[in-house]
């Protein structure tokens, strides 16, 4: 259940904190490269924006006092008051220019931050994409699918979102709060202390609400994960559920999961919706106390009308960023934790680098030799101790054994999906470690038991290993794989679009397409891992004929459970617990009367 796995990991990462925030921020700064210039421009823009935003209320105070004085003078003279260029008009235009410039600066820095975040996200996605191609298979063996996907998608999305909004808000908030408080203290210390008292109450309450909100949000995410898992299970297992009459149990489990989601969502939504009204109530209460106190000071002549209204502008400019500070800090903290996880992925140990001067082979017919190969998925747990055998060019090598015997591991070592811990593997006399990965794998063609087809046309899927193949070559490969007939019965033939799961064709037909894919590449070495396990007996016989022709003058490795498919093998390796316990051809092993003979006789008893 990949979706459930992903959702659970999202829950784990959503509320985490970075282990070394300073080091992560420093490294992110180094990754920015040329984007640092853009960030510096934003910082300078924020500086000018803050200065103008803090200066505007102070300047407006002078305008209000000027206009109020002119109004009182006109009223005392019994004349009508008019705003002219000399009596306040010039100052009003200047104030309008200040507010216009602040608006332009804010729009400019918002645009820069949006493009900065997206460019940085693109850079990191590119680095991750390259990294994934250099990671050994052991990394994917030890990490959950949801964890890897979440780092690639959700962590980067969160970082981009926070950089676009949270970082800009933080820059602006620091400047606005600092500047506003300085100006408020300049106007009146007592009123400023009243503001700080109520702001402190609001911030403390915000932290309490935030902690509870995060807790309930985490519980809701767990509930979402459970519902997602139930839906996926009910959909993918619908046939089995009905076959065993478990519809009521499945419905009951779904109802329990949905009820839990409704309960946790109700609590989470209440906390999220209750915090803003409460904080605003505290702020309004503080503003009311300040208004009453400032009104008395105004009547006593301590404050002017201009400073009265300017003080309230500063209260508004400082209160909003302060009350949002807890959320911004939590958001930035979570974003840094996401970046930290991205760097952890980028720091993972990679596959061995290609040699500076890799060896290339010219021959199209190659032999393979295992010389005292030793291997374990971890150094402390060795699976293979001493594997030695040879396959001459054109020979068919069959590998048999029970589940977990090491058959697929043997093939993985041959393809250098894993590196050996000892010994060596030779391809036409050349150590595999002396070849590049690309140079090595062009000699191999694989057909696995688990078919993999991507979203695209049938022709594109067949030509996956040879994108420049002509339509004639694709059709020839399909005919050789006995797939041409069923392809032509489809509505669009070779141009039929396959979905991500290729549900519009059967499992056997999928297998035929993967076989055609390998036939088109015409490799020197074939690897067939239960390649005909999903096809019927008649089709298997047809594919077998095509395989016989394809295997001519080619070395081939066949992993099989049905021993009837490998009786003609030149060499049969019988594996058990990572070790080759028997080897020989079919007749030799039957005469030996060992494990292979027992397996063969059990399959054909009677």
Outline of this structure?
The protein has helices at residues 2-14, 21-32, 35-77, 85-134, 137-141, 145-152, 154-187, 189-236, 238-243, 247-299, 305-346, 407-414, 437-441, 458-462, 471-480, 484-489, 507-521, 537-551, 586-592, 595-603; strands at residues 368-375, 384-391, 396-401, 422-427, 430-431, 444-447, 456-457, 497-498, 525-529, 555-559, 571-576, 579-584. It has 606 residues and is an alpha/beta fold.
* Coarse morphology: elongated
Helix content: 55-70%
Distance between the termini: 42 Å
Number of strands: 12
Biggest beta sheet summary: 6 strands, mixed
The radius of gyration computed from the alpha-carbon positions, rounded to a whole number of angstroms, is 36 Å
Strand order, largest beta sheet: 6-9-10-3-11-12
Instruction: Please tell me the overall pLDDT.
Output: 81
List segments where confidence is low: pLDDT < 50 over at least 5 consecutive residues.
Answer: 1-15
Strand content: 5-15%
How many separate helices? 20
Which structural category fits the helices and strands? Answer: alpha/beta
Overview of the molecule:
The protein has 606 residues and is α/β, with parallel strands linked by helices. Helices cover 65% and strands 10% of the residues. It is built from 20 helices and twelve strands. It has helices at residues 2-14, 21-32, 35-77, 85-134, 137-141, 145-152, 154-187, 189-236, 238-243, 247-299, 305-346, 407-414, 437-441, 458-462, 471-480, 484-489, 507-521, 537-551, 586-592, 595-603; strands at residues 368-375, 384-391, 396-401, 422-427, 430-431, 444-447, 456-457, 497-498, 525-529, 555-559, 571-576, 579-584. The strands form three sheets. It has a six-stranded mixed β-sheet with strand order 6-9-10-3-11-12, sandwiched between helices. Strands 2-1-4-5 form a four-stranded antiparallel β-sheet, with no helix packed on it. β9 (525-529), α18 and β10 form a beta-alpha-beta unit. α1 (2-14) crosses α6, α3 runs antiparallel to α4 and α3 runs parallel beside α7. Mean pLDDT is 81; it is low at 1-15.
């Amino acid at each position: 259940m990949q979706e459930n796995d992903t959702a659970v990991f999202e829950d784990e990462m959503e509320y985490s904190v970075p282990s070394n925030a300073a080091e992560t921020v420093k490294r992110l700064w180094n990754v920015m490269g040329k984007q640092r210039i853009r960030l510096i421009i934003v910082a300078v823009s924020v500086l000018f924006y803050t200065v103008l935003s803090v200066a505007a209320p102070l300047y407006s105070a002078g305008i209000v006092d000027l206009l109020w004085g002119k109004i009182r003078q006109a009223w005392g003279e019994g004349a009508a008051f008019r705003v002219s260029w000399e009596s306040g008009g010039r100052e009003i235009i200047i104030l309008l220019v200040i507010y216009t410039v602040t608006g332009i600066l804010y729009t400019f820095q918002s645009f820069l931050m949006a493009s900065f975040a997206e460019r940085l996200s693109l850079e990191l996605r590119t680095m991750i994409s390259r990294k994934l191609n250099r990671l050994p298979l052991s990394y994917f063996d030890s990490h959950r699918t949801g964890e890897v996907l979440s780092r690639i998608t959700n962590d980067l999305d969160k970082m981009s979102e926070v950089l676009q909004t949270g970082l800009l808000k933080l820059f602006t908030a620091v400047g606005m709060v600092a500047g506003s408080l300085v100006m408020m203290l300049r106007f009146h210390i007592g009123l400023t202390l009243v503001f700080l008292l109520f702001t402190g109450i609001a911030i403390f309450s915000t932290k309490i609400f935030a902690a509870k909100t995060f807790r309930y949000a985490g519980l809701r995410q767990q509930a979402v994960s459970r519902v997602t898992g139930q839906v996926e299970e009910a959909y993918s297992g619908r046939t089995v559920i009905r076959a065993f009459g478990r519809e009521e149990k499945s419905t009951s489990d779904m109802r329990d999961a949905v009820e839990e989601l409704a309960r946790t969502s109700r609590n989470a939504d209440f906390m999220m919706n209750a915090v803003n009204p409460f904080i605003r109530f505290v702020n309004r209460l503080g503003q009311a106390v300040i208004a009453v106190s400032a009104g008395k000071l105004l009547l006593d002549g301590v404050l002017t009308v201009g400073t009265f209204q300017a003080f309230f502008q500063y209260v508004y400019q400082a209160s909003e960023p302060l009350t949002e500070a807890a959320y911004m800090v939590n958001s930035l903290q979570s974003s840094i934790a996401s970046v930290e996880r991205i760097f952890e992925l980028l720091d993972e140990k990679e596959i061995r680098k290609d040699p500076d001067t890799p060896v290339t082979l010219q021959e199209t017919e190659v032999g393979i030799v295992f010389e005292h190969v030793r291997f374990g998925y971890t150094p402390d747990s060795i699976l293979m101790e001493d594997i030695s055998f040879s396959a001459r060019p054109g020979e068919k090598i069959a590998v048999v054994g029970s589940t977990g015997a090491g058959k697929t591991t043997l093939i993985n070592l041959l393809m250098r999906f894993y590196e050996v811990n000892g010994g060596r593997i030779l391809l036409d006399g050349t150590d595999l470690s002396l070849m590049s990965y690309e140079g090595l794998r062009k000699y191999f063609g694989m057909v696995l038991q688990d078919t993999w087809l991507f979203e695209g046309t049938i022709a594109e899927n067949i030509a996956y290993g040879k994108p420049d193949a002509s339509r004639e070559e694709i059709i020839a490969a399909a005919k050789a794989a006995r797939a041409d007939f069923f392809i032509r019965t489809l509505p669009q033939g070779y141009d039929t679009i396959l979905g991500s799961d290729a549900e519009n064709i059967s499992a056997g037909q999928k297998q035929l397409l993967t076989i055609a894919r390998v036939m088109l590449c015409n490799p020197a070495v074939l690897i067939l891992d239960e390649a005909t396990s999903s096809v019927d007996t008649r089709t298997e016989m047809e594919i077998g004929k095509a395989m016989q022709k394809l295997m001519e003058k080619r070395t081939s490795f066949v992993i099989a459970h049905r021993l009837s498919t490998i009786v003609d093998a030149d060499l049969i390796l019988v594996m058990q617990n990572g070790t080759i316990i028997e080897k020989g051809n079919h007749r030799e092993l039957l005469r030996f009367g060992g494990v292979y003979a027992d397996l063969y006789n059990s399959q054909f008893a009677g």
